[in-house]
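Posted in: Protein Modeling Q&A

I'm a second-year student putting together a small comparison for a lab meeting, and my supervisor asked me to include a predicted structure for DNA-directed RNA polymerase subunit. I've never done this before, so apologies if this is the wrong subforum. The sequence is pasted below exactly as I got it from our records. If anyone can share the structure token output, I'd also love a short note on what stands out.
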Amino acid sequence: MPTPRLAEKIGSLLFCPDCGTLLNLPRDDEVVVNCEQCGHEEPASSYENIVITTRSHPDAFPSALRQKGKTQTKVHQGDEALLKVTEKCPECGHMEAYSKEMQLRSADEGSTILYTCVNCKHGWRVNN
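Accepted answer (user: helix_wrangler)
Welcome! Here is the predicted structure, written out as tokens:
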């Protein structure tokens, strides 16, 4: 059976204990892991076969998309259904706008979200 590569023995993301920067996994010929940010060095062997436990709470990583989902209301204007969302108007600073998603660019590019301020009717767009 071949000897496992050093990166396979370590098998996880490594963070600098001094500054928290994500460390590069060492190559098989490297005997130290060094932080490019602060210069901290440790023997690569100190990371071999360690047990890493990761825990997080669902709200630990806030999502702008999840937040927008909580603040959307469907509004009908004539035949068109728009979403009323919490979005700051760049013109007047009001925090509500109507939004509509459209594919204005080529199919291999993201969609465009068109916003109209509820307060001043200013329109703007955001490319996804």
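A couple of things worth pointing out for your meeting: The longest strand covers residues 80-86. The chain has two domains: 6-47, 64-127.
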